Amino acid sequence: MASAKITKQNLFLVFFSLVFFSLSLPAGYAGADIDASWHEALVMAIEKNFVFGRDFIFNYGPLGYLNTGLLPKTVSHLLLVAVELFTLFNYLIIIRLAFAKAGTKRWVVAISALLIFMPWGFIADTSFTLFYFFLFWLLHAQQTRNSIGLLLAFILSVLIFYIKVNLSIVVYIILYASLIYFYVARYFTLRTIIIIAVLQILLTYSLSFILNVDIPAYLGASMKIIDSYQDGMAIMLLTKEEFLPLLLFEALILAVAGLFIILRFQWQSLYLYILVSLTWFLSFKQAHTAVGHYNVFGFFLFMSPLAVLLYLFTAEKYKVWAGRAFVIILVLQIVATQMIRYYMGEHTIKGYALTYPPADVAQEMKEDFKPVQIFRIIQEKNPINYLQRLFTYDYEDNFKNIPVKLPQDLSDKIGNASVDIVPHQITYLFFNRLNYNPRPVIQSYQANSDWLMQKNGEKYLSKTAPQYVIYRVESFREQNPFWVETDLAKALLKNYQLTDTTLIAKDTFFVFQHQQVSKTLKTVSTKAITFKLDEDINLPVSDNPVVFSADINYSLKGKLARLFFQPPYLHCQVTYENGKQENFRVIDKILRGGIFINQKVTTHAEAARFFLNGGKTDLKVTKIRFWAKYGGGFSDNFKGQFQEYTMPD
């Protein structure tokens, strides 16, 4: 009888493995959107041996392609296969342990495993998947006192460090805090703890040479990105009618897990409770910075796996209650994610159904449904498709169907010279195989603090500055399109000449060319002011460009809102000399570095005049007023400064 049970379990694990390979591919190809752009930038940075932390500053590190699936030319796709096999190994271990704990309820484990995993895979983000396995092996090491768990945890921590650096900071803190706890609580000997710590440090340090990482700069830049990320990226993309029901489901899941912990609390499980709570909070923060369909969907996907940890590592006498809590959370997750699919499907049943097939098949079904398209889904979602990609993958296939081809005169002009593109359309450079030489913060929406803007400006003033810059004025999340990259704009004024205008994919871009002789941008006058929210600030009257900088700080209420949800939004009302007004979202840490304030530069024509003659003929700004819907989130008084510059001759 026991043998029959083992055979059924093994058959299910084989079936699960087939499902796993049906829902994934061993490597991906380049795309053409804002996220695809940084995928491709990462590939080009690796191919050009950029130093991460200095030449390349981003959330993702030199192994970030394990998350994106887009491989550098020099990396074999078999590396991705190895990572996927390791991922599958972890899944199967977790399922086997759940089978063992469930006893006669193994069928619940089997159904739950499939419901968690399908149809989009376990967790969309590879770095968070590995983070989950990291937590699992730490808890397994504590429960079994087996050092193999510690060994796997430290290997996973190093992988995460070079995939997604901001998450790895949390991972390293958890690892070393856990090692100290394991020693103090006598789970492991001091010798074992020291060996794991030394191995982790040695592996991290050794890989930094192989992967071209300046570890101090890598960590320092990541801390700057983390500090400004919420302020620059926070936005509500859901309607109130969409968000409130989802928030209710989030609260219900938290209540179920919280009640289980409170009612069945055990001191020996405190470590488990802390890890689960911390991970819940990190998932919540990641999903609720930019509150959109996909981010909140990802949050719900992570809730059931977290409940699995509660089930696996709760004391045996409480396993029934832990199992019930898991089932309730799984049901809540399924209902919530179906609601999100309905929202994504434009609030229609047909749109909801079309969120399930692969994107290309869904588009065909949307235009004209045919029964044969069902077979297309089966054709794309099966292990044979995985094997076909495994044996036919070729890096050069990225360039077979180029989505955007640059104008021939622009390609001829740039030739083999180095080039960067602003604000984020790196895809154009990748597909046209230009000599990519970017500013360190590769996409302008990420340069959302004074320090990050300064790094980009320094690049354009350095000896390694790109010969050409393809530049476009483009707004991001309600911000003024010219109130970003101030140091970069100054560098363009000093070291570059606007030489051409071009159309790429129906969008207008400027072409700047580096000049051998730098021009001077002098400060003519400086004026300090003190101001409050909802107070008019009159601007200096001048034909020269004026930069305004200010330190706008959050109040205690604002800091708490920023910590637990989102920072309060800051806006600026601009009044022009013709009496018209506009409102823009303002990022406090960008404002600290300064913005060009006294001229209207929101269109390409206005930007052209600014770079050619200082915008002397552009519409002038006469006054500004900072305001916030929730004014209590900011301090009462702020200090600011106007700096007037003379334009270079």
Unreliable stretches: none
Could you tell me the strand content as a percent range? 5-15%
Radius of gyration, Cα only, in angstroms?
A: 27 Å
Count of helical stretches:
25
End-to-end distance: 90 Å
Question: Which percent bin holds the helix content?
Answer: 40-55%
* Fold-level CATH name of the domain at 522-646: Jelly Rolls
Main sheet: strands, sense, barrel: 5 strands, mixed
**Mean pLDDT across residues:** 91
Number of strands: 15
Question: What structural category characterises the helix and strand content?
Answer: alpha+beta
CATH architecture of the domain at 522-646: Sandwich
Q: Please identify the top-level CATH class of the domain at 522-646.
A: Mainly Beta
Transmembrane segments: 75-95, 107-139, 151-176, 188-211, 243-263, 270-288, 294-313, 325-344
Keywords: Membrane, Transmembrane, Transmembrane helix
Organism: Emticicia agri
Protein name: Transmembrane protein
